[in-house]
Fold this protein.
Amino acid sequence: MKLTLGFSPCPNDTFIFDALVNHKIDTEGLSFEVLLEDVQTLNLRAMEGKLDLTKISYGALPLVLQHYMVLPGGGALGKGVGPLLISAQPAEPGKDHPNMDDHTIAIPGENTTAHLLFSQAFPKAKKKIFKVFNEIEDFLLGSADQAGKTAGVIIHENRFTYQKKGLVKLMDLSEYWEKETGYPIPLGGIAVRRDFSPALQSKINTLIRKSVEHAFGNYPSLPSYVIEHAQEMEEAIMRQHIDLYVNDYSLDLGTGGRMAVQRFIEIYEREKHVSAGTRDIFIRSDHI
């Protein structure tokens, strides 16, 4: 049986899925047609129900629940792993919460977790532009000499590169989330088609967990699959990326992870003044 599978070319995703898609583990009769895209593109595809299995931002989860449920394995969730708010201009001295009301803010996608977290921290900031995550540093550098104020929300490997380019951190949005909720921050999860049988959903989740275990078992060796899709990233940055985003929650969300996702959806509903509906979010635990 062949399934369509979407995830990003970022090292954490290729690290997690390498053993699965390259048959380094027994996939028990399943094969995968892989689509590598940035997460906002995957979010949009998921809204249309186009893929059997896909990485999504938790910021898009309420918009795709009619098509998908969340798997416990394969996602990105943790403490200190959230987006950073950065700028070419330094923060005002003595201010932990900068004023962004008059700034133009570059956001890595409208339906991303980063957008919701920024909106929660800065509800009055309305001048937003949406860009692919790896374009935001250059946008800030290009606008540094122009009139007006700019800032950007960065994710993925840009957490490790912005300082080398002369950009400065204004705020860690994960710290804001953790202070406000007490939960680890849910960044992205793996969504599986809701109309698949519970047995198939469970089988897919088990295979993803085995894929993560295989990757951990061979680490710190980097699979060639990670290196070839890392867009000329230094190996040290690849490892920093994996170390930050792949953890025990990638094996299984557990109770704490599930509660964090539930809380995230509650905040989404409050911020957006909408209801995500009453559909089950996670695949049935008795089939895991």
